[in-house]
Amino acid sequence: MAYKNKLIVIVLAVALGTCEEREGLGFEDFWVQPASGDITAAYITIKNPGQTSDTLLDVHCDVAGVTSIHETRHEQGMMRMRPLETLPIPARSQVIMQPGGFHIMLEGLDHPLQVGEVVNLRLRFEKMGEITLPITVEDRRGHEH
Q: How much is the average pLDDT of 81-94?
């Protein structure tokens, strides 16, 4: 009976976009911005409490023609965004994707994303392999930390 209850808690956590854990990596606070056009961004916190680092190699979203890892940096007085080939996830640390920092670009959307909609984001890691997360579209403008 305890196994069934644990499974229900995990399913609810994933459905609510709050937490998911697999093979040492944890995934929290995953969400995607609404989009009226064909481009938006997704955000996630990846926690690695383990002794071994991992690397995010590839991302894919079921509603985007192109999905890629990006970083926004402040350089020479300007904010600049650049694509990343991979994203290291060091051991005993976390990588926080958020507006103005690391994020996942979703380009060539097949429809405008509305608040409350759920899209599937597949992450492929060097050591952990693949995981697909259901991510809810949320309007967090004005709520950034």
A: 98
